[in-house]
Amino acid sequence: MSRRPTISDPSQAVAAIVAAHSDQAIERDADPVATAADGSVYAVAYAAARRLGFIADDAAVLASAWTRRAARLGFDPRDWPDDAAEDFGLPRHPQPFAPCPMQLGLYAVLPDAAWVARMAEAGVPTLQLRFKHDDPARIAAEVRAAVQAVQGSAVRLFINDHWRQALEAGAYGVHLGQEDIAALTAEDVATLRASGLRLGVSTHGYAEMVRAWRLGPSYLALGAVYPTTLKAMPTAPQGPGRLRAYARLARALPTVAIGGIGLEQLPEVAASGVGSVAVVRAIVQADDPPAAARTLMQRWDALRSRYNMGHSDPR
After folding, report:
1. What span, in angstroms and rounded, lies between the C-alpha atoms of 222 and 202?
2. Per-residue pLDDT reduced to its tens digit, 290-302
3. I need a surface site. Which of 43, 69, 204, 309 has the fewest CB within 10 A?
4. Are 242 and 24 in contact (CB under 8 A)?
């Protein structure tokens, strides 16, 4: 068993981690006076993570990952845990959900079936129906209409939240948030897995990534990367620095960046190494949505081609 190193100057080590990884700092959530309780790697990494603005749950996950990594490789403040199995204790799931492509292309999140039909016609490769309504009959009808809108095409359609209706309608996949997956029973998970539906899960940090990973999802959504006004977010915008770290950790799975992304943000998002990009306002609030979708697809494809040529994991 590897020997766990002890750090002789914890205060200096905390400061060194913070300085080396300032691109991951979120001032809103930071505890600038967080101090290591002792000289263990866990205590040092936890304090550094809190100074960088990682919420307590994420800081705890990171501290455990730092401890495992330092036991294998030694402690280096310039390092950062990024090995799912070795650092985070997350091997591949023995019975994962049905797979989807590593690169889903442009991923448009849309409010109703009419929008799904419109963007399918525009050639957007991956779509999500995010239909908010309280009437079960309306929800079921909208899901059926959205599925019908993409039949006979190569479009991949995910249904947000309404997984039972998605299953009944024959959708390609479902997208669930953290509260949704917490509400699933073991029987629900078994039903979803056996159905062949692809499962995408929203994550907003390390603790939620770990929780989602243990389900064996088809893809992970990472965000919100930038500020967004479309929904109240429980966490601060994660920023491109954290997106790079999340994408490295989840590199064995398809990943989708989401949150406040438009044409201007695409180069920074593509440079993170993330596989796909989700957009909402950049399409549904555009003056000419089909033209906006075509421009976004062309730009994203060009950027991904560039980074796939030896630049997919910039550090």
Report:
1. 7
2. 999 999 999 999 9
3. 309
4. yes
